[in-house]
């Protein structure tokens, strides 16, 4: 390899490193700014519903679905009876249960249908959405409004990231904060929670 080629490759790699650093800072800064816009008191009813419900059902789709599955895992570690809608072992929801539904647009058809069914049987519904006037929000007993860009809000100024990335990232962080708060209220030692970690991996 010629020295000139080596220098050019080194410069290209350095530019890539700079770009990665800038983009990581962009992602982190957008989430911090969004956190400052959140009404944290609006999360108290969500925590109360979780504490008071017999069972917790969680539903979302796409990347938001991964965030909700992560939250379901942590709730299980707390000893809560939690199910992810769509899994083959998820039972029927009932009137003493809670459905936590996340959709940036609030219009995802499968999520709205599940919310309608949950409401019809008397279950409580908490919606996490970027559209407080959406179909999902109108069905909910409580709405957690996340003022992030929707996946089709290109150039809205709410986020420089692609599609609904900010909503999806923040959903994961927010639900981790909810778990952390529930854990502190519960007071169970970390060693006890760890006993519920999967051991068939």
TrEMBL record:
GO molecular function: carbohydrate derivative binding; isomerase activity
Classification via Gene3D superfamilies: Glucose-6-phosphate isomerase like protein, domain 1
Keyword vocabulary terms for this entry: Isomerase
Keyword ATP-binding annotated: no
One example of a Gene Ontology biological process annotation: carbohydrate derivative metabolic process
Entry superkingdom: Bacteria
Isomerase in keyword set: yes
Signal peptide residue numbers: none
Domain (SIS): residue spans on this chain: 46-188
A Pfam entry, by short name: SIS
Stored NCBIfam families: RuMP_HxlB
Family: Belongs to the SIS family. PHI subfamily.
Descriptive protein name: 6-phospho-3-hexuloisomerase
UniProt source species: Pedobacter petrophilus
Gene behind the chain: hxlB
């Amino acid at each position: 390899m010629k020295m000139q080629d080596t220098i050019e490759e080194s410069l290209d790699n350095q530019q890539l490193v700079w770009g990665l650093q800038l983009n990581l800072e962009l992602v982190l800064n957008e989430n911090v700014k969004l956190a400052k816009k959140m009404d944290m008191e609006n999360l108290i009813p969500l925590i109360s519903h979780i504490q008071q419900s017999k069972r917790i059902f969680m539903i979302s789709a796409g990347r938001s679905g991964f965030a909700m599955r992560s939250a379901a895992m942590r709730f299980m570690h707390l000893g809560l009876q939690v199910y992810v809608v769509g899994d083959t072992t998820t039972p029927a929801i009932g009137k003493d249960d809670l459905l936590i539904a996340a959709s940036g647009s609030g219009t995802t058809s499968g999520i709205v249908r599940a919310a309608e069914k949950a409401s019809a049987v008397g279950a409580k519904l908490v919606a996490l959405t970027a559209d407080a006037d959406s179909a999902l929000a109108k069905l909910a007993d409580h709405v957690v409004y996340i003022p992030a860009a929707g996946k089709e809000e290109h150039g809205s100024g709410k986020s420089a990231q692609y599609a609904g990335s900010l909503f999806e990232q923040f959903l994961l962080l927010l639900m981790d904060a909810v778990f952390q708060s529930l854990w502190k209220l519960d007071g169970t030692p970390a060693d006890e929670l760890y006993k519920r970690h999967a051991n068939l991996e």
